[in-house]
């Protein structure tokens, strides 16, 4: 080490503590990387790899990026899965003795990225922690860009599936766990299912004692009971471990994470991974695009905050009828009042992203433009409050009452920051004139310094009578008074001789020195004072973070409500009746996404399900006829109703369901070694283990991934299991090509047959897209194949084979009918033989009767017995 340069010794000392990070080492106007970090960065960022002398024979590999444009490079590295440690100068170079002190001020990871240029403003950027032990599991999730922080816990039983569902709901960019969980099968399952940056941290940071203290210290509380964490040990461990990780990587600037919320999955409808994917709630299955998803239809929000809130409402429908109805009332009022809705939209369009601006403010990396955007955003809050004053629904009245106009914050920024501030905070030009007298003096000195010098020059000429006295300037002496030798006798006593030249002498005065100091140092003092003033203003705004975050929440809800109202109005949606009953009654229901893509050309259908006579609908019909669309639209209508949205239907009565399960389509998971059929059975198993009588099940083509008899057997058994009220008894839509299952209507209580109507035209078919009662007797597979474009030769041969198979099938049916007829004939013959035998016996008994020896009563009794026997024959 003695031979290594002092600067590189400093580098190695810092790098030792951040071995798993790419170290951005600040040198002047660049962040430099060395050795392996440089090799990696040069490759990933496609920048030149150079070298630097460091006291050894070989040069150290080196590359760098300008500090003013580093954010984009850092974001690219983080997106590729790297952690980046930012090492800055932490002392003034002018005051440094030797090497300037440097230290890491922040570690940037996928879950802590703040760069707005790479983050999707409509999505939260979550980081999640999962903690596991024998007695249970804890989960915590945070978005450092908004300050949202939540935690929950699960008992060991079924914890894995619940955690996987939560990961699917939050879609975190980064996940941390305790060391004990890293080798658990759950961790492997997470890696297989989700593309998430996963790392473990010291087990001790998750210990209940350490985690509890970490949270109490951060929130400045003596107890966590106020956050609802009493007797929630696993939740505390998960939240405390996550907070420790954030403090360790972010160092400071986490004041906007001002509370932790404990939630339970009972607060909203849980949706498993498969159902989210199959229903395409926020993105399409194939392209992963928002367009073509339910969110793409419903999102007409005007703010980034509202867009994130809309996504949450879609992903977590409610379970409380009263809360749902309150949302629906708010949507209804906005839908019915176009002018009110347009006024609200006009105000929302002026608003920037409160939440993420505040995260930058608290992190102390917000600039004056951020504060100006915040000011412009809250400028119209009083107007918005006046607009909401006219609202009558409970939901909107509540938003009106809670909305804080933040007038003092607007007043502070308006008074302090210029209208169009510069991007940088180190070059002045940010602070408005009149805010600070001292700054105004420096500003005037900078602008009027030359005229002040000319004015003093004139005043000194008049006082001394020296007409050719001049005030001049050079870099050595600064400003000075110059007097020719012929006028030296008129120089006042307060002039201090500074320099004698051949034909003149130079003087200074205390007044000139003061003025010179004010003028010459004005620019530097302006920059320094403006930065200090800006920091004070930014800190003052940061102190109001909780008020501003709450206001952002109110704006988000209002934005979602107006968006749902706008969609309901433009797409002719209706207000559903939502209650705690067990009936789903949809008249003229439509698929929201397909209808939009078809520009309204959609054939509606009815749906009726209950927990009694129409518990399970078996739906048959050809492929492409619309079975899957129909079933999905039912699920989406129910989900929309429970999130508080109007629905695409003529009318809808929705009894709240506790969960929606879907098993739709065919897919395999080759990375996990699972075939299409294995994936299908795994999803079905999840449904059968978790569904209740309050659930809605969408089951499409169960058993199609295996042989006909196996598949039919499985589908039949699943159908019986789901339909049985003593086992599950869930409301179910069951689509199948196994026509044999239609025989279950009348045999299983609550099972009804439905089919998709088609019209045959010769060898072609027309899909009518209409659901009707009864079962389908054809699959029309060959006709669908023709529509798909199979060669005519294949179609012709398929028809030949189909006729042969149908003929064989008819023969089998005929033989079965004949066998049944023979059995019936034999049974009839046996009955006839028994009749004749009985008849013969009766005749023999009558012949043997001695009528003359019988009393009248005995004769009547015998006649009565014979008649009774004859009637029973």
UniProtKB/TrEMBL annotation:
<feature type="domain" description="DNA mismatch repair proteins mutS family">
    <location>
        <begin position="695"/>
        <end position="711"/>
    </location>
</feature>
<feature type="binding site">
    <location>
        <begin position="621"/>
        <end position="628"/>
    </location>
    <ligand>
        <name>ATP</name>
    </ligand>
</feature>
<dbReference type="InterPro" id="IPR027417">
    <property type="entry name" value="P-loop_NTPase"/>
</dbReference>
<keyword id="KW-0067">ATP-binding</keyword>
<comment type="similarity">
    <text>Belongs to the DNA mismatch repair MutS family.</text>
</comment>
<dbReference type="InterPro" id="IPR036187">
    <property type="entry name" value="DNA_mismatch_repair_MutS_sf"/>
</dbReference>
<dbReference type="Pfam" id="PF05192">
    <property type="entry name" value="MutS_III"/>
</dbReference>
<keyword id="KW-0234">DNA repair</keyword>
<dbReference type="InterPro" id="IPR045076">
    <property type="entry name" value="MutS"/>
</dbReference>
<dbReference type="Pfam" id="PF05190">
    <property type="entry name" value="MutS_IV"/>
</dbReference>
<dbReference type="Pfam" id="PF05188">
    <property type="entry name" value="MutS_II"/>
</dbReference>
<comment type="function">
    <text>This protein is involved in the repair of mismatches in DNA. It is possible that it carries out the mismatch recognition step. This protein has a weak ATPase activity.</text>
</comment>
<dbReference type="InterPro" id="IPR007696">
    <property type="entry name" value="DNA_mismatch_repair_MutS_core"/>
</dbReference>
<dbReference type="InterPro" id="IPR007860">
    <property type="entry name" value="DNA_mmatch_repair_MutS_con_dom"/>
</dbReference>
<dbReference type="InterPro" id="IPR016151">
    <property type="entry name" value="DNA_mismatch_repair_MutS_N"/>
</dbReference>
<dbReference type="Pfam" id="PF00488">
    <property type="entry name" value="MutS_V"/>
</dbReference>
<dbReference type="InterPro" id="IPR036678">
    <property type="entry name" value="MutS_con_dom_sf"/>
</dbReference>
<keyword id="KW-0227">DNA damage</keyword>
<dbReference type="InterPro" id="IPR007695">
    <property type="entry name" value="DNA_mismatch_repair_MutS-lik_N"/>
</dbReference>
<keyword id="KW-0547">Nucleotide-binding</keyword>
<protein>
    <recommendedName>
        <fullName>DNA mismatch repair protein MutS</fullName>
    </recommendedName>
</protein>
<dbReference type="Pfam" id="PF01624">
    <property type="entry name" value="MutS_I"/>
</dbReference>
<dbReference type="InterPro" id="IPR005748">
    <property type="entry name" value="DNA_mismatch_repair_MutS"/>
</dbReference>
<dbReference type="InterPro" id="IPR000432">
    <property type="entry name" value="DNA_mismatch_repair_MutS_C"/>
</dbReference>
<dbReference type="InterPro" id="IPR007861">
    <property type="entry name" value="DNA_mismatch_repair_MutS_clamp"/>
</dbReference>
<dbReference type="InterPro" id="IPR017261">
    <property type="entry name" value="DNA_mismatch_repair_MutS/MSH"/>
</dbReference>
<keyword id="KW-0238">DNA-binding</keyword>
